[in-house]
Write a structure and sequence with these properties.
Elements lengths: L1 E5 H5 L1 H4 L18 H7 L4 E7 L15 E7 L5 E2 L4 E3 L8 E2 L4 E2 L4 E6 L9 E3 L8 E5 L4
Parallel strand pairs: 8-9
Antiparallel strand pairs: 1-10, 2-3, 3-8, 4-7, 5-6, 5-10
Length: 143
């Protein structure tokens, strides 16, 4: 299974959390299904909760740089293994970056720096960088 989010969609918090006003039936034409509908069909308890391209001062890496980043969240009430899960910025998975073989605690978060660097010093780094408007994919071993 694959989860695709565009950076623009991630930055639109009101839409993602359901806080934005939605038309009631009879309020006019309804929109066709969107990418958000596909996101809701993804059943893994691990989700991409936030991402930032062009990080200038929000979160620093251990070396003092400000790389792009992706935040994962475990929606389950128990710990979930990350083994066999991958992040990528390419639909074909060519830049697939494996997540560490560890458990994400119940309702826990994991920060992944997207800077093309190697994971070290307790930090996780993806093998790719983000660009504005680019997609981020979370996939399992089946791609």
């Amino acid at each position: 299974m694959k989860l695709k989010w565009t950076i623009a969609a991630l930055m639109c918090c009101a839409l993602l959390c359901g806080c934005a006003a939605r038309p009631e039936q009879g309020d006019g034409p309804t929109e066709p299904p969107t990418e958000q509908s596909a996101v809701q069909a993804f059943t893994s308890p691990i989700t991409i909760s936030e991402a930032m391209a062009r990080n200038r001062s929000t979160l620093a890496a251990a070396d003092g740089s400000f790389p792009d980043w992706i935040e994962l969240y475990n929606t389950a009430d128990e710990a979930v293994s990350l083994e066999g899960l991958y992040l990528s910025d390419e639909a074909d998975g060519s830049s697939r970056s494996p997540l560490p073989e560890r458990e994400l605690p119940a309702h826990g978060f994991l920060l992944v720096f997207a800077d093309g660097g190697e994971s070290a010093a307790g930090e996780i780094h993806a093998r790719f960088k983000l660009s504005e408007g680019e997609s981020v994919y979370l996939s399992g071993p089946d791609g």
